[in-house]
Amino acid sequence: MSINNQTNPAAQATPAILFRGLVIICLAITCLVLAVGCAGMAGKTGDIMPATDSDGPDRVMAGEANLQSAAPVRQQTDADKTAQRLGELRKRTDIYWGEGMADITGDLGAARMLAKKRALSDLSQKISVQVASDIQIITGAYTTLDAGRTTEAVEKSITRKIETYSSHVLENVHEDQLFLDYPKPGWGTYFVWISIKEYTDKIAQDMTRKKSLVVDQVKNGDAAYAAGDFMAALSQYATSQTMQQDFFGHIPVYLDPDGTGARVSVAGYVSDRMRRFSGALTLRLLNKDFLYDAAGALEKTPRVHATITDAAGNPRPVKNLPLKVVFIKGSGQAGQITTGVYGQADLPVSGIDPAFKQTVVRVMPDPAIFPKGTDVQLPAIQVDLQRKRTVALSVQFTNMGKPAGARDLTRGITARLLENRMAVVTAGFKTAADVAAGRDLNADYALIVLINAHGGANVGGYANMHVAECAADITLYRMPSGSLAHAKQTPASRGFGTSGDTAGWDAFGNNKDAIMAEIAKMTDYLK
After folding, report:
1. Which of 11, 112, 141, 333 is most buried (most C-beta within 10 Å)?
2. How far apart are CA 435 and CA 388, in angstroms?
């Protein structure tokens, strides 16, 4: 019994061992749960606690490994998003875009500005290429430009136009964000863009509209030319030239004037039309023989007629044509002149310098009606203006030693000279010295008639009966030299009167016919 009642040591120890094992297992499970929980929290926050020396080398190496592996995973994720975003922007077909990069490891604000500047520069270059292409296509100048035949002036105009339009476009550029750590860590990428519609509205449509304005002016000119309103046509052509210069500089603008597909430049077409006009234009005088007197006044006004010969060879009047009058010999005044409805115009020439025996003016279309630099040959005519043969007339009557009037005789001699188309100016000459001093009269000849009645003695012892004799010295001098051209003395004639004075007048009256006869001979000489 004693043996059966003893306690078995192994049997007694079994419950305690099992309990201790269970406790150990529970502790292990708790530690595992805690470790997993901490790891999960670390994954959510992205924070990895730094290792300490007390943790041991194994734990320090494990912590560093976790830091090194976590950052690349995060950067890779951001880079992928940036690449995806930029890829989407680059693939858009409704925008023009530009990119710029800069190092962001220093001043982030300065880096942002630099990246933006580079992005705008990239967009500007792309816009410039598009502007250059549109200029060539819209103006129609692509053949000239592609063929490499551009002049320096054309190239400069294209450059200026590209700069102007590009700057205009960039005024309303759209900006995107600065993408950090792209395309590599420490670098940023800036993205800017503008919609193609905005570009088209501001640039392409503007160029198209301006070209249409230039071409429409040419078409309006053609219509006016066909209707016979040539000056209106020239004005339209000139306006088209001015517009092209203002809009496109030296860039050629092309058009198809006949609708046949044959392209010609506006400048070339307009120049051809202007040369055709000037080549068919004719000026002619409708009257002739233009004389001016010693005061510089024309006897009659020259009249000019302007016509243009059409394709059928018929002359058509040119109205509203400005004419330019230039003195090429002599001097004077010429006012503005424009042809009337029937192409006629009176030359407004006045104030001719009578010191010249001949004055010559040239009449031609005013070159100002053509654009500066237009190569045209303008018709011109010369109008010869002749000073009338002018006679400085001096008639002086001395009766019984006293000066007396001779108005009737003076009027008779003047009328005789005028009948022979000579002008007359009054002079007080008596001698050749007086003639030489009278240059300012602008006369060709000096005619001096000196009449002298003398005597007056009684006849037959009658107190109331007197007799006198009268004769005239007639001399003709050339002016301004003062040389003698002709001289004659009339035979003496007698006269009677109740006094010596009245006898002198009677003798003078009897001598008038002889004087006029000699004047007639001299005027024939003057012819």
Report:
1. 141
2. 19
